[in-house]
Design brief:
The complex is a heterodimer of chains A (253) and B (252). By secondary structure, chain A is mainly alpha-helical. Chain A has 2 domains: 1-31; 39-252, MetI-like (MetI-like fold, Orthogonal Bundle). Chain A has 10 helices and no strands. Chain A starts with a helix and ends in a 5-residue tail after the last helix. Chain B has helices at 2-31, 42-55, 57-87, 91-105, 113-120, 124-148, 152-160, 165-202, 208-217, 221-251. Classes of the chains: A mainly alpha (253), B mainly alpha (252).
Chain lengths: 253, 252
């Protein structure tokens, strides 16, 4: 029986993952310093018997999840609104698009301490920081999606008496859909980055508190478990956005 | 000519935007509506910057961050292109690895930062390793795209003329994929730079990121803003220079 290429790819990945876990397990059991490395079996054990029984950890995970949702929703709102405003005319694009791109290129993490001074150490700071990260890719992709629109569509829209809303909804939106979804996907990645940075920076509460606690008490099993859970959440969220992207673009065939 | 005129007016708008920003900053801080703790006056920031340079702290922090970034960037470039070269030896390997690398790059690797601190301590080496990991991905992804885009018949021609693997790489693959790899290297620089600053902000003893976090904790907003303005000006200037170099190299 011959496998299809897709199946071969899938099983090769599974085998690689298994081999890596096995190497890690053997290494951690035989040679590693237990203050630094835990074998995967103990990490799983710690996830089930330590993390999920610690209400503080559950609380921190749930809080950061809703912080992420609020930040992402705001990033979409602001990104699309400002993207539309800048991309509406060729003059706006010429004058402001380079400004947006240059701001996008700034390592925003240098503003993190300032965000904490302004918003405090609570959720507001993390939402604002996630928003400031997620906003740019969305705005940039909305603007570039509007850049290469066929001018005839706009003219015929105008001459048929379309309102600004109609033009945005029926001409710009279908035209920039591909680019918009790219922006939404990158926006999710960067909003996650912003929220994680802020979570780790504020080490007196939330995820940052727990990672610091486990790292400083040299208790690697729950630390690995917590990081693995967060990474898994990030993977699921990214896949979710990509699934929506595929669905949203299906009509184009 | 019309193009030039509208180019000129958009340049004017960009300069105006900058002037507006500085003007608003000056106005807001002189009106005193925002506490000087959150928004120090431009003049106090200038004085703080001069003080930083004169005390030598500016250069020592810059040296730490700069050497960390350069080490991480070098590792990312070498490891990224080597991995891409190995993967692109077979189409099957590209199909296996490329989506995995792209998928890992989409999750915030900052999550792993506590592990780097655990293994390597709070010195510069943990920042080098963390930033090199982050910077590896854009180089690898772009180099995979670049190497895969080299036309099959170029490789076959080189092979039939008896070129060695190294000669094929040096004279066929590298020139053909150079523009795409260059984009990856540029992106990698900014990601490494941001990662080093982020790592220093989160957990460090020295470096620019640490100075900013420390200035915030010690309630010295003028010093914090001096660093922030410096990093912004530096990254905007670097961005312009690297983009220009890139477009010039690709045009050749």
């Amino acid at each position: 029986m011959r496998m299809t290429t897709g199946a071969r790819i899938f099983w090769t990945r599974c085998a690689m993952l298994l081999a890596a876990l096995l190497c890690w397990e053997v290494y951690a059991r035989l040679w590693a310093d237990t203050r630094f490395v835990s074998p995967p079996s103990l990490v799983l054990h710690a996830a089930i018997f330590e993390l999920f029984r610690e209400p503080g950890v559950i609380d921190a995970l749930v809080t950061s999840l809703w912080i992420l949702f609020v930040a992402y929703a705001l990033a979409i709102l602001f990104g699309v609104a400002i993207g539309l405003a800048v991309g509406w005319s060729s003059f706006g694009r010429k004058a402001f698009f380079p400004v947006v791109l240059l701001l996008y290129g700034i390592p925003q993490v240098i503003l993190l301490p300032l965000f904490v001074l302004i918003f405090g150490i609570g959720p507001a700071c993390k939402i604002a920081f996630g928003l400031s990260h997620g906003f740019f890719p969305i705005a940039v992709n909305v603007i570039s999606g509007m850049k290469n629109i066929n001018i005839l569509y706009l003219r015929s829209g105008h001459s048929l008496g379309a309102s600004s809303f109609d033009i945005a909804r029926y001409i710009y939106l279908p035209n920039m859909l591909q680019s918009l979804f790219t922006g939404l996907r990158l926006g999710m990645t960067l909003t996650l980055l912003g929220v994680v940075l802020a979570e780790l920076y504020v080490s007196t509460q939330g995820i940052g508190y727990w990672t610091k606690l486990y790292a400083e008490t040299h208790d690697p099993a729950p630390l690995f478990a917590l990081i693995a859970i967060l990474a898994l959440m990030a993977v699921i969220l990214n896949e979710l956005v990509r699934a929506i992207e595929r669905r949203g673009l299906r009509w184009r065939g | 000519m019309i193009g030039d005129a509208s180019n000129l007016s958009s340049r004017a708008i960009q300069l105006g935007f900058l002037a507006l920003l500085v003007g608003a900053w000056q106005l807001l801080s002189s009106l005193g509506t925002i506490s000087p703790l959150l928004l120090p006056s431009p003049d106090s920031v200038r004085i703080a910057f001069v003080k930083l340079v004169e005390s030598g702290q500016f250069w020592s922090s810059l040296r730490v961050t700069g050497s960390t970034v350069l080490q991480a960037w070098a590792i990312a470039m070498i490891a990224g292109s080597a991995a891409a070269y190995a993967i692109t030896r077979s189409r099957f390997l590209v199909a296996v690895f490329e989506p995995v690398i792209a998928g890992i790059f989409a999750i915030p690797l900052t999550l792993l930062f506590p592990l780097y601190i655990l293994f390597l301590g709070i010195g510069p080496s943990s920042k080098v390793a963390y930033a090199a990991t982050y910077g590896f991905f854009p180089v690898a992804l772009n180099a995979i795209a670049g190497f895969s885009a080299v036309k099959e018949h170029y490789l076959r021609a080189a092979h039939s003329m008896g070129a060695s693997a190294f000669a094929t790489f040096r004279h066929v693959m590298l020139p053909a994929s150079f523009p795409i790899i260059l984009t990856g290297i540029r992106i990698s620089f900014f990601i490494t730079f941001a990662s080093v600053l982020g790592g220093e902000t989160l957990s460090s003893v020295t470096g620019i990121g640490k100075r900013i976090a420390l200035a915030a904790e010690l309630m010295e907003p003028a010093e914090m803003f001096a660093w922030i303005v410096f990093v912004i000006v530096f990254s905007v200037a670097t961005n312009m220079v690297l983009s220009m170099l890139e477009s010039r190299a690709s045009a050749q």
